[in-house]
Structure formats: C-alpha cells, structure tokens
Amino acid sequence: xxxxxxxxxxxxxxxxxxxxxxxxxxxxxxxxxxxxxxxxxxxxxxxxxxxxxxxxxxxxxxxxxxxxxxxxxxxxxxxxxxxxxxxxxxxxxxxxxxxxxxxxxxxxxxxxxxxxxxxxxxxxxxxxxxxxxxxxxxxxxxxxxxxxxxxxxxxxxxxxxxxxxxxxxxxxxxxxxxxxxxxxxxxxxxxxxxxxxxxxxxxxxxxxxxxxxxxxxxxxxxxxxxxxxxxxxxxxxxxxxxxxxxxxxxxxxxxxxxxxxxxxxxxxxxxxxxxxxxxxxxxxxxxxxxxxxxxxxxxxxxxxx
Length: 305
Prior knowledge:
Elements: H1 5-14, H2 16-27, E1 37-41, E2 53-59, E3 77-83, E4 86-92, H3 97-100, H4 107-112, H5 114-121, E5 126-135, E6 145-153, H6 187-199, E7 204-211, H7 220-229, E8 234-236, H8 240-248, E9 252-262, H9 273-280, H10 283-301
Parallel strand pairs: 1-4, 1-5, 5-9, 6-7, 7-8
Antiparallel strand pairs: 2-3, 3-4, 5-8, 6-9
C-alpha cells in the first residue's frame, strides 16, 4: 500500500531512530579502523576530500535513508579513510535547511542533522565542521579563517519535537532533553586548528558564527544587527544545527569557516552565489585550507590533544 505524503512524513518522524541505525549498520562493514573524526566539507570545499588516504567512497544514494544533496558544490559522497594517519569519515556535501524547510512534522531539520546522528551511532567521538561564510567583523578579509568559539543559532533547533532515544558517544547515557550549550566548541581542538593555521601562515580569527536559514542573503539592517547588536563575526546558512546535535550526542566539536565575502561597514552584503563559488574554486584558497586541515590532523596524531 502506498502511503500518502503526510503518512510518509509521520512514518519518517516516528521511526527516525531506526532509520539512523539502518544507515549506520550499512556503513559499519566498510570500516577497517574505528574513525576518530567525522568531517563535513562545506560549500565548494569538496576538493579537500583529496586529502583522504586509502579512500572507500560510498554515495549518499547507496546508504539507506541518507538525505541527498541538491546544491552545487555538495557532491554527496561519504568517504572512509584517513588524514595524517587519523581514521576519519568525510561527508562530502551537506543538506541545508532551506532545501527541506517545507517538509511537515519537523522533518526538514531532521534530514539536515541525520548524518551527524549516523556518525554518533558509529561511535565517532569528534566532529569537525567546515563552511563558507560572510565576514561581519571589520577585521576579516576574503580567504581568512574564522575558528568558531561560540555560535548564535537562528535555524530551527534540531532538538525540538519528539524526544529521541539516542545515546551519547562519551558515556552511553541517553541524550539530554535540555542540552547545555556551554563550551560547545572544544578549546583544545580549536587550539590545534589555530596552530595548524599559523604553521601555514593563514590568518585565523577566533569568534562567533551566526547560522541563519537563507537562502536569501542578509539585508543591511540584518547585517548591522548581527554584528553590532548580537556580536557575530561571520554569518552562514549551516553548521549550527549539526553542532547542537553533535554536542547533544557527546561529541567534541571543532569548526572552521572560510570567509568568502566581506560585508561592508554599512551592512551591504553585495555578494552572489557565483562570487562565493569563485572564491571557493580558487586553487590558492583550496591549497591553504587543505594544508591547514592536514596539519591539524598531524598535530592531533602527534599527541597535541
């Protein structure tokens, strides 16, 4: 019997834990070593997957229940391997909330954070998220890094709705209904990332990222409010929901934003998707991010953590 649209939505919501478990169980046989990190590659950063050694590639479409990517620059591959001898799973492409915001019963945000639940279900203790972002802070320039110290989430909170029966990766207790968000971003992992950026002579600022729904870019008034009233240093359309779930599942989190456009003092955000893509496709930019991430994992492997 074919389910109606609303029946399918209810079925997805009510059987969410089982769908996550099914996806994780599909991936498990491909793992030779237990991954220590999950790494999501943000918009246009897919070339960083070339860092992964001994790659095993699984298309998202092969994994049961896994959300498919629809935005250019998000290829939709899960890659198993290692970087600097650290076992890792790379998510090459993410689902954004604006792609699925019209789904009923909170299913849109549940799709967005589905891959993070799968990483946690596999017992992965650390989550590294990357994204492209607009620079609000006057000191940020195109090509700079923002290492996220804290965030402001203006997306729907992914913990809204049904209380799921997931377990934490760190102590196997059931996840908290009321998740504290202090110290979301692990200070030691952030310190390692800062050192890796310094080694490669990249300008890295530590600051606040604000996650918004998009897909429209921000007005002058919004940019001024985000920067001057809320204290945000960069703005983007992803990441915060993923990191809330990673924190809720007991993972340690580190996040890097690549600044692809600078928002002027008067709040003008005169950018376009094509401009952002041109920055992301720049070979020099790709190389400096790649070297920084490679050195991050090298330092982690050498015992900096």
